[in-house]
Amino acid sequence: MKDRITQMEKDLRSTYALVAIVNKKSEIAADVERYALTELHKATESLNFIALNRAEENKRIHERVNALTQLSSAEEIFWREHSKASAVAQFQDRVQQVHHFFDKCYKAMRVVWKTMFPLNAVPPTLLALMSEFGLLSIANATGDLEALYPKVLLPANIIVDRLEENSRVPEERGTPQG
User: 3-state DSSP call for residue 161?
Assistant: First the structure.
């Protein structure tokens, strides 16, 4: 009987030790999650250089969070917590907006390149194209590209919008065929 009690005491101490380990791991996991969400918020705000329509952005985020919530299983508690799901959805939305912006810049600069140098191949990336036009050295001298956005945005939008308009078939433009 005494051996049995001794064994139970050892088991109890082991259980306490395991509980302490699990508690410490959960604290660390919570700290890591808080840090990750804080960094995600910082990254999202750093993508705030494009003129945002907050109402449209909030609508897209709300729709994405609702979709993620509906698609998630009962075990996936991450998407059930609205603030976490919104942080991820907002970051995804901003990345898509930035991607669209740089696509427009690249398309506009390709048109300029093809007009100026019709016999030369167009550089394959936006960075290579900016380098060819000498814009990359300006950005590197200042340490960031933010000063270049106003210079590129309006002409890029005008050129790409006109190209898109001209590439549509007549019925898309709303003009009668004749």
Answer: helix
Query: Does any domain span residue 124?
Result: yes
Could you tell me the residue range of the domain that residue 33 belongs to?
Answer: 1-46
Q: If the chain, 178 residues long, is cut into consecutive pieces of 10 residues, what is the mean pLDDT of each piece?
A: 89 91 89 85 77 84 87 71 85 86 87 88 87 70 57 58 58 49
27 and 108 share one domain: no
* CB neighbour class for 123 (10 Å; exposed up to 12, middle 13-18, buried from 19): middle
For the chain, the residue count is 178
Report the predicted TM-score, pTM, of the whole model to 2 decimal places: 0.59
**Residue type (1 letter), 110:** R
Task: Please state, in angstroms and rounded to a whole number, the distance separating the CA atoms of residues 149 and 142.
Answer: 13
Which among 49, 146, 50, 152 is positioned nearest to 107, based on CA atoms?
A: 152
Pair 116, 163 in one domain: yes
Total domains, the chain: 2
- Whole-number pLDDT of residue 146: 59
- Which residue is it, tokens 């007009």? 115
